[in-house]
């Protein structure tokens, strides 16, 4: 996923290893989940563009997944089990043929919308087609690249002809024809673009005000473009066709546009309706976490999660002195990850990283540390490499970062790096930019600096959407948003990406992604710094806490309230 889109996934639900410092099934005496009540969601970011065509989600999202069902979805389980893709509207995760260039799905029997009308394969085809309409842009871009003949398609509003690459031979069968082998198509089929949309109910850009539900809840209120969203039970949803969503509460009340400190204060106090409240986008900060840790009751109401996400230093080898691999290696050795982790909020909120891939099996994580710096860096080894690179007296460089207080690419992290590199004889000048200026600068090939802070999050828990956008040379964008920061265009790397994409055995693919990560790491085009840890409070009446390694946050499709 594009780094610029990471916040969208986090708002929808980032990824996690199950809660470690709380009762996994909820606080309180009776932990048995019951139906009924109202769940309140307190968020900072509004649930904007509540249209399945426009949402950029992972695994179907968190709030969106309550209304929009897709061909496949994420497994709603704690920890590593939650990284698996499972059937949703379909009977299985897809049947590949012709070398994974054709994928066929069969819909379950008895699927209906909120008005009781049947869901058909033609509705899924139409839902995908409308996501190509320029006025409904914003969703994941893969379908335009993967589907045969889809590159220039403009959606159903500008012409009656649909996508020939999607066939619907009958009401329960849908077939996708791809340009090239894509073994991870079942992951893509979790995106909301695979939500069925009845053509007769499509109101274009106004569809977000009342999208037709295929999930356990329907929209009864959408104010200020998702700032206040109220969901009530869809009485035509049947649990017999949906093994993933529990749908315990009667009502979901989403309130957004709140300050993060206010959200945490309200969850901490748990007064009134806030006792049955959660957040899907607001973490505890270092100061808040210190307070919570010292309170036994609050500590029991913290969910811990890990999203597939890496914060790192990026090099542009087209700019001196970063064209010299030994300079890049020297910086790698000089990094003090302990100080960087402290700057990111401490070990409770960040874990040191020496691999680009996140530390999760589903990504194919293969442990390696090619430039071992220890906990505090190895300035002596860095000096030796600088001397070999022709800089016996050190050098002066500029590090570009964001001024946003995000504990990721912000001044605190940059200063920690500056201090560490100084010990190796490297003087670092800091260039702080406002967030939009920073994003524009680092994602433009023409303006990309030589050294800057960056981060990347995965569209699904696999090495594919993590490594390919950053290291596939064919994805270098010269006249638009570019994420291949090292401008790597290595034929052997590109060929291995293609070879892995052909694999439909995702376990075997994961091993290959891990090996490729190490191979790329040898080029020292990035310095992995840390993987974030998410700590989020929930109200005292919230039960059945499930946090998966796919989303990293409490899954509200599983939550029950008193």
UniProtKB/TrEMBL annotation:
InterPro entries tied to this protein: Peptide/Ni-bd, SBP_5, SBP_5_dom
GO BP, sorted A to Z: peptide transport
CC terms in the record's Gene Ontology section: ATP-binding cassette (ABC) transporter complex; periplasmic space
Domain Solute-binding protein family, residue spans: 84-474
SUPFAM superfamilies on file: Periplasmic binding protein-like II
Entry GO MF terms: peptide transmembrane transporter activity
Region (Disordered) location: 19-42, 195-215
Biased composition (Basic and acidic residues): 199-211
Identification of the protein by name: Peptide/nickel transport system substrate-binding protein
